[in-house]
TrEMBL record:
InterPro entries: Alpha/beta_knot_MTases, MRM1, MRM1_MeTrfase_dom, Ribosomal_eL30-like_sf, SpoU_MeTrfase, SpoU_subst-bd, tRNA_m1G_MTases_N. Residues 72-222 form the tRNA/rRNA methyltransferase SpoU type domain. One of its GO terms (cellular component) is mitochondrion. This is rRNA methyltransferase 1, mitochondrial. Pfam families: SpoU_methylase, SpoU_sub_bind. SUPFAM superfamilies: alpha/beta knot (SSF75217), L30e-like (SSF55315). Keywords: Methyltransferase, Mitochondrion, rRNA processing, S-adenosyl-L-methionine, Transferase, Transit peptide. PANTHER family: RRNA METHYLTRANSFERASE 1, MITOCHONDRIAL. It comes from the Eukaryota. One of its GO terms (molecular function) is rRNA (guanine) methyltransferase activity. Residues 7-49 form the RNA 2-O ribose methyltransferase substrate binding domain.
Amino acid sequence: PARAALGELALQAAARGVPVLRVPRRELDALCRGRLHQGVCLEATPLRFQSLEAAQKAALGDAESGSRQLLWLVLEQIQDPMNLGALLRSAYFLGVDRVVTSHRNSCPLTPTVSKASAGAMEVFDVYSTDDLQGFLKAKSAEGWEVLGTVSRPEDVDGVPVISCLEFQWNRPVIIVIGSEGEGLSLETQLLCHRMLTIPPGRALHPGIESLNVSVATGILLHSICSQKRRHGD
């Protein structure tokens, strides 16, 4: 089955004008720098983040569409490529309208990210901004609700915390995810209207009180996206 799949892949590549070379496995290993390649490697130009500022100037019209529920995912300083890829995969699958990352201290769009995203990175534009707080302030002024995320409600001061199960979606939403180690910065937390938390299913042992960032985000996105109205409702 694996040989047949590789043969089909070679035929599809050739049909699209992509040259196909058969090389020894050690050469594939070298091209992939020792990472798992499953018998195939594609040389391609790097993907870059799209400029959020340029997209905003283009007046795409998303925010003006009152007939739709809009959901943007904002990532603040996600640094692990496997996490970023998993986040993009979940966002694409669950119907997130746009993903925005902070430019500073964020993982670039590497081949590892693409592999972890199961190809979602190749078909789903990812935007980046140099001024994350300014962007959130602007969207809030436009009427969007900015939702932060937190593992432990006691870590938040001055912003209401609710369970993701209590959230009611009635206007465009931005959900902001913080870095793997530190979570959301204080400056970003203070721009959130509310913070979402995931209720645990048991009393948690100290030190095992949080979820992997990509897993937590998948749960939160599903909780929100399950409220999405069907077209025509």
